[in-house]
Every structure is written in C-alpha cells, then in structure tokens.
Amino acid sequence: MGIHVLRPQIVLILIGLLSACSADKPVNTADSIYTGGNIITINDVQPAAEAVAVKDGKIIAVGGLASIEKAHKSESTQIVDLAGKTMLPGFVDSHGHAYMIGLQATTANLLPPPDGTGKDIASLQKLLTDWVATHEAAVKKVGWIVGFGYDDSQLAEQRHPTRDDLDKVSTEFPVIIIHQSGHLGVANSKALEMAGVTAETKNPKGGVFRRQAGSQEPNGILEEYAFFYLVSKLASNFDNDINDVLVEEGTRLLASFGYTTGQEGRAMSTGLSAMQRTANAGKLAIDLVAYPDILEVENPNPSSSYTKHFRVGGVKLTIDGSPQGKTAWLTKPYHVSPEGQPKDYQGYAAIDEVTTNNAVDKAFANGWQILVHANGDAASDRFINAVRLAKEKYPDVDNRPVLIHGQVLREDQIDEVKELGIFPSLFPMHTFYWGDWHRESVLGPERAENISPTGWVLSRGMMFGTHHDAPVALPDSMRVLSATVTRKTRTGRVLGSEHRVPVTTALKAMTIWPAWQHFEEKAKGSIEVGKLADFVILSDNPLTVPEDKLSDINVLETIKEGISIYQRPVDVASVPSPAMFGTTQHVQHHEFGTHSQHAHSDGDGCFNPALDVLINAINKKVYKTQ
Questions:
Q1: Residues with Cβ < 8 Å from 498, sequence gap 6 or more?
Q2: Among 186, 101, 195, 97, which residue's Cα sits nearest to residue 146?
Q3: What DSSP element (H or E) covers 466?
Q4: 3-class SS of residue 93
Q5: DSSP letter string over 170-219?
Q6: Is the pLDDT of residue 225 over 90?
Q7: Which one of 18, 216, 234, 624 is most buried, counting C-beta atoms within 10 A?
C-alpha cells in the first residue's frame, strides 16, 4: 500500500479545525452553575454575582453568566435555576451545641410561644403527659421522662415549676425538665430520690439545690452544677446508639436552618466519642467543630483539618451561668433578685479565679484556641484578666481566644477585648427572647439597653459573631439575623437602638466573621473562587425585604460542597416554622432536589414534626446522609 502525503494546505486546515474545537471546549468544566436569582457573595470586592460555577465541591468562578458558561459549561454541566430566590454562603455557627441540639429535637417541646406552647405550668404538664403517651417505648428504654425548653420568665405564673408540679406528671418514672437556658432544670421527687438528693445534700461548688421555704428539703429546682449532676444521671442511661443519633439529628437540624458548619461548644467525653463515631460512619452532612471542656477532657487533640466533616477546634471553659436564669455573675446586683436571695445578689462564678487562670494558661501554652463562656460583666473581667496574663507569658501565641456571649459587657471592657485580640461571639437574639425580661427583672431598663453590645463593638472596627446557642433557643438563622438588625423584643420594644446594625453587617457576623473565628476564612464564609461550595438558598432577599420581615424569611435549601443536603418540603414552604419537635414520631423520608442524588433532611426548618431520636435508636432506624 502506498503512502499518501497530505498537501501542506490540507494540513494547515486540519490544524486550524482542531484548534478551533479545542478553544470551544472548556478547560475547567463545571459540575454545576447556579444562576437565575440574587447571589449575595459577602465579598466586599464583588458583593453580588449573576452566576457561580462549582467543580468537585469548590467554587471555580463567580461573575457574569455569559462569561462563566463560555469558560466552564459543557454538556455535563448542570444549570441550577434559583428561580428568583437568594443564595448566600452557608452559615457558620459562631456558637451552639450540636450534640444537645439533638436532645432538643427529640424530647417533649416545652418552649414558650412562638416556638412552642409552654405558656403556663398546666400546659407544661400536659405537654409532658402527651409526650409520654406517644413515646412509651422510649420512656421504658431510657427510664426517664424528659422535656426541654421551659422558660419561667414566659410562664403565666412567673415562676419555675417545682418537684410537686412534676410529680403530677409521674411518680413512677423520674422526670426532668430543662430550662431554655440550659443552665437550670427541675426534677420530680423520683428523680431526686434516684440521684440521692435529700435535705442533707449540700450544694455542689458552682451550683445550687433550691429548697422549700422554711426547710432544707429540695424543691426540685436545680442550678448550674447541681443541675449538671442530675443530667449526668440521665445521660448514663444513653447507649452509643442514642448518643450517636443525637449528633446526627442535631446536625440535621442545623442544616435545616442553613448552617453548613456547626459547633459543639462544650463537649464532654461521651459526646465527643459520639461525634467521632458519627463522623467515622459517614453520617455528618455538615462540618462539625467541637470544643471539649478543658476541665473535663484531658487531651482534646485539636486539629486544623476535618476528617469526614469532623474536627476538634480547641477547648471550652465556662465561668458563669445564665442571665435570664439569674446565675450569671455580675458586678452589680440583679434588678429583681431570684426567690430566696438577698437584694444585693449578683450571681456567682461557676469556677474560681485560679481555675480560670490555669485553664487559659494551659490553652495558650499548648497553642489551643479557647472559647470562654462569660455572660456577666464580672465573669468577663475574670476572662479578660486571664488572657492578659497568658499573653504576657506567651506573647507569640496566636490562638484567637473567643468570648462567648458577653451579654453584660461594659463599654470599657470592649476596649480591653480589642486590645487583647479576643473575638466576641455575641448573642443579640436575646433581645427578642428575653429582652423584656432583662428590662423588667434581670438587669433593669438602663443595663438591659446594652445587652450584646454589637454597636460598641462595630464602632471600634471589630469583627464579631452572632449565635443562637441552641438548644437555648432554636438554631433559627433568620431569627438571629432579625434580632441583630432590629433588636426588637417580644412586645415590639427596640432594646438598645445604638446596637442595631445593617443587614450586610449582620450577615457577615453569620458567615465570614465566624469563619475567621474558626480559622477557616480561606475556605468558608463568602462566595469566592477557591472556597468550598457551601451555600444557603433563602425564600427572599434579606437586603431588600423590610427589616421587620427578616424573621419570616425561610431557608429553602442548604448545599454542602456542591451537594444539596436539605430542602424545605413544598407542603410547608409557607409555614413560619413553629417548633413542634418531640411530640410526633416521624419516619417518612423524602428525596428532594434537581441536582443531587443524595437524600435530604426532612423538616420545615425546625423538624416539624421531628424525627424521634429515642424511637429511631430503639428501632435502629438511622437515616443516611448519602
């Protein structure tokens, strides 16, 4: 066979054709392109975009649709139409308790309106008895009846329930109800008996067993470490199945509110092990960063990288309690002292100064990040002093210490916080849930104006985070946003107008600034090339809706590294997320979405009705995230 030699002209034509084909084919083909809605990037250099291209879970392009399609679209690229909705970077949890959120989502819901129906003691009793009637297997397995979220400040009686009130629910089983703050609780007579708490039992250090009037007999109300002692008795009845599902369902609940990074802000050994097991089993849909209690966990082993969506970020220390529960440590007396306390009552520290200083020193010595719970200004003084001592001893350590809550920060303390490089993770959602209570009973009109003083922080050019502290409240991202912007109480009063901030600032405090808090600002917190494709899709644009409607915005979808992990069911898309978890067993599992083969969490932003963790654990029904 002879060899045919192509003419030079034909060779040039073929080369030109091949070059043209090569030029038309994208070099970096996107898996998906998001467009057709409002894209808020939280990037000051490029605040908005028409389209975002994603490949292998990361953002590869942000900008105009035409240019992105030309450079990154192929036949296999999926075009995700936002249909006029709004997309932002996924929310980063500045502070919460993912493990305990699982408990919140699986016990009798005692929250007051608008998140529940616990408006008086009679309604609490009914909620508990109704829950027992529908969860007999769970009660028999665990041996306890548990309710979460009652709030004495919102009860008609304006008092805590007592052991006598809970004895009307059951005298056969121990009953414990957890205050919405997570710092107090109430036990019935059976629970006190099983825990060995009697008139002779002394108060533990950093806690109080409240007593019946005129005697030493416990009335069932437990504060701080007295309460934690009883909770440990409850938790001892949980096996690995229950603990693991608590983690899984807690992170699912976070995802339903748009969080793609969750936090367990005070992990104990049992919860830490459960988080690790859940991650190893591939059951975490979002990233989860844990901070073990430095006084309880000897070797936390922090890491800067995630393994199967889990890492330990540092350590946690708790100095005082809750302002709404009146256990936070103040420098001035409470406006109205709690029952049985003198008029000059100022709360108390949960740990002493030596313990505080040693813990902070240990964190700095090891280069660990430390989160410190300090609500009262006296507690904040102690933390500030401990950081100052540690920085003098370890001047080159950059561990970004975090002040958690800082509810009663004074303005002079803000300057010290800035000087020492302490990141304030604040709690402006308190203005809605407990603003009226702070004004009328906790702090009085003057001090209440300045709770969670975001205005003072912002005026000094500082970053800050805003959080939900769930299960203290639902991890409702839109309630966090609304409260940070409007600072309106339940009765509509604006509490501290100088601390209201613009919507753009409030969004940064839920995205890029807490990403910085966690040393993750290069990977999360904004929609930029090279960052993870972590997104949340909202029903409305928070930059354009009236401020008093921010809390009505719904999370429609949550996307983690390009994979849709939650979609709001169509049949509840217009319902304003009342919390009804823990009252109805729910075992149906839906498939949602047009661009993912993965299963989604089920719920309407608050798991309504919720997956019952205890029932699931008994029946080995653990839903998979992939």
A1: 455
A2: 186
A3: strand 465-466
A4: coil
A5: -SSS-EEEEETTSSEEEE-HHHHHHHT--TTPPPPTTEEEEE-TTSSSEE
A6: no
A7: 234
Q: Which is nearest to 28 in space by CA: 50, 51, 59, 49?
A: 59
The whole-angstrom distance between residue 326's C-alpha and the CA centroid of its chain comes to 22
- Cα dihedral 518→522→527→529 (10° resolution): -160
Contact 495, 449 (CB under 8 A): yes
Q: Residue 501: CB partners within 8 Å, gap ≥ 6? A: 454, 455, 458, 484, 485, 509
Q: Buried (b) or exposed (e) across 378-405, using 16+ Cβ within 10 A? A: bbbbbbbbbbeebbeebeebebbbbbbb
Strand 402-405 to strand 423-426: parallel, antiparallel, or no bridges (unpaired)? parallel
pTM above 0.90, yes or no: no
User: Quick one: which H or E segment has residue 224?
Assistant: helix 224-235
Of 18-22, 219-223, 518-522, the poorest mean pLDDT is in 18-22
Distance of CA 469 to the CA centre of its chain: 5
Helix axes 353-366, 377-393, angle to 10 degrees: 40
Q: Is the pLDDT of residue 611 over 80?
A: no
> Residue 183 and residue 323: Cα distance in Å, rounded?
10
Q: How confident is the model at residue 593 (pLDDT cuts 50, 70, 90)?
A: very low
The two three-digit tokens of residue 516, written as one number: 């910085």
pLDDT value at residue 7:
57
Tell me which residue has tokens 């639902």: 474
Q: Is the pLDDT of residue 574 over 80?
A: no
